[in-house]
Design brief:
413 residues, alpha/beta, Rossmann fold, 2 domains, seven-stranded parallel beta sheet, six-stranded parallel beta sheet, 16 helices, 13 strands
């Protein structure tokens, strides 16, 4: 079966990692699966090389860009229509807002038999101007007419699309990921990172970064190596997200003084990069807490477990995200989570079962939840253990790929 996945850009991000894992898994099952993307990357990094290294044919369409541009968008539709017509795919599977609309339009004109679209997060949402919100909702309603099947990464996505009047067939297939490196983390001290221990140690004392840093822990306490002070932090609060608008860093900085007052030796481990990083570094300086914050910069997906290993709790404070991949990753490592109650977060972070759900924007609530987990280590361990059991059964890559396989076969018969 010939399948083409289409996404606007291959940066390091949840939707992109989901798409790449899907393509790799489908090829292992014998699918003739190709991946189409635009040329843009950015400070968030690029997945182009890992895709090629995995043997997935990667087709870059230069006209496919993230920013709206009527002429260029028209050229992108034309380029994709020609590609779909020439390649004669059985299934075109689109991802993200821009590629989702343009890809489905081109697939319709190319008369592709089956068109699937994954909803990683709606293009319309409260935190944009009303006109833009209306236009994106209208575009999704129109594109819905060209869609054979919607795939939602969370039930919340289906609910939001149906509430917006976007009719169609929906199925939830949770975003799968390689959980093995996270499940292997027995405790924060048992994990040795031969590369990241050295790199994070440099970052913690604000030394210049080097992509070539390497340090073997030789059995030392990994936390002591990463946080080289006379007394390593008792508690590490982690956040993994691009440093971009709506990712919730503002709420964490607002909560930080209250957390520091209750947890004197706390450190904040911020994993990710983006255009807002200089602003956040200045914010930490203004708070007088720059020594409390460690900015790792860009981290490759395979290096994330080494960072999660050092966390005692992961906070996820994004104001818009379909199904946050960092939540199941942290829970697989046995770490409790604190998350804003938006989109699909509640489908991973279960209140009082795997972590705490906080009203969006409530920085005081975030601080209270983090402090409670510091003060009640038994509760934190219980939430992490329960979370590990839950995600092990629901968020593996193999399960996601198997469900996609079953879906394609059903739609193509």
């Amino acid at each position: 079966m010939k399948v083409c996945h289409v996404i606007t850009r291959l940066i390091v991000g949840g939707a992109q990692e989901n798409t790449v894992a899907s393509c790799i898994g489908l090829r292992k099952l014998g699918y003739d699966c190709e991946l189409v993307t635009g040329p843009q990357t950015g400070p968030e990094g690029s997945l182009h090389d890992p895709v090629r290294a995995a043997g997935v044919p990667l087709i870059v369409v230069d006209e496919l860009r993230r920013a709206p541009h009527p002429f260029q968008d028209g050229m992108a539709v034309r380029a994709l229509k020609k590609l779909f017509t020439d390649r004669q795919y059985d299934v075109v599977h689109t991802h993200s807002g821009k590629a989702g609309f343009i890809g489905r339009l081109a697939a319709r004109w190319a008369q592709v038999p089956v068109v699937v679209h994954t909803i990683h997060g709606p293009s319309f949402y409260p935190y944009q101007n009303p006109l833009g919100n209306w236009l994106f909702r209208w575009a999704e309603q129109l594109a819905g007419e060209w869609t054979t099947q919607f795939v939602s990464v969370a039930d919340a996505m289906t609910e939001q699309y149906e509430a917006a009047g976007i009719t169609g067939k929906y199925v939830t297939i949770r975003s799968g990921m390689n959980l093995a490196p996270f499940l292997a983390l027995e405790s924060k001290n048992s994990f040795e990172s031969e590369k990241w221990t050295g790199r994070l140690a440099r970052l913690s004392d604000h030394s210049p970064r080097s992509e070539q840093d390497s340090c073997v822990t030789n059995g030392r306490d990994a936390r002591s190596a990463i946080f080289p002070t006379s007394s390593p932090p008792d508690f590490v609060v982690g956040k993994i997200a691009r440093m971009f608008r709506l990712k919730g860093y503002e709420s964490l900085f607002a909560a930080a003084p209250q957390i520091v007052a209750a947890v004197p030796s706390v450190k904040f481990l911020l994993v990710g990069d983006g255009v807002n990083r200089p602003r956040y570094e200045r914010w930490a300086e203004r708070l007088g807490l720059r020594d409390r914050f460690i900015f790792t910069g860009l981290v490759r997906p395979e290096e994330i477990p080494a960072c999660v290993a050092q966390m005692d709790v992961l906070v996820h404070l994004s104001l818009r995200e379909g199904l946050p991949r960092t939540l199941p990753q942290a829970l697989a490592a046995g770490k409790p989570v604190v998350a804003f109650d938006v989109d699909g977060a509640r489908e991973v972070c279960r209140e009082g079962e795997t972590g705490f759900l906080i009203r969006a924007g409530d920085s005081a609530g975030v601080a209270a939840a983090v402090i409670r987990l510091f003060q009640d280590r038994a509760l934190a361990a219980k939430l992490g253990a329960q979370g590990r059991q839950r995600v092990r059964a629901e968020f593996g890559e193999d399960l996601m790929v198997r469900k996609l396989d079953e879906l394609y076969r059903r739609l193509c018969t």
